[in-house]
Design a protein that fits this description.
By secondary structure, the protein is of the alpha+beta class. The chain has three helices and twelve strands. InterPro entries: ATP_synth_asu-like_sf (IPR023366), Lumazine-bd (IPR001783), Lumazine-bd_dom (IPR026017), Riboflavin_synthase-like_b-brl (IPR017938).
Length: 210
Amino acid sequence: MFTGIVEELGEIVAIEHLGDASRFQVRGPVVTEGAKHGDSIAVNGVCLTVVDIIEDGESTRFSADVMAETLNRSSLGALDIGSRVNLERPMALGGRLGGHIVQGHVDGTGAIVDRKLSEHWEIVKISLPAELSRYVVEKGSITVDGISLTVVDAGPDYFTVSLIPTTLALTTLGVKQAGDPVNLEVDVLAKYVERLLGRDNGTQDKEATS
């Protein structure tokens, strides 16, 4: 489990295409500290499994295999060598939940629609797949490229977020422009509530007709 609090901006340093998958090498000296084969690291909000830790003279990087399904259903397929990525290690047991519960399972992709600069923050409008709109509410939580954010305004096919200078400086949202894709993960609690309410309604309907 992750919290959506980005630990560092990493960089894609190599991509090896393997037919139905790709192997990424990602530079990230903070998240690789103490990491080993089989550990999880979130890359732009996608939970990936570490294959190798590679030490070099300048910094440490890790490799991770990304299957075609993940490449097709997330924005990872649009990454290239030199792309900056948000990195986060799983939350340690007993650690602080600084953001919200993030699984690292992307529900869909959106795109930056526009950005409006204010004096101390920036309002960013992001497109939203229609099937995800029911999970997004004003003042609720959403994960954008692995960043835990609070929804300012929620529409049928978009939402807006307000970004403080720290988020702009320390994550990829500081440089993404209109048209750039982003990974979206809605609040898993909303999914559970929907499922539980659906079951309750189904039970009540069955009892009413019996």
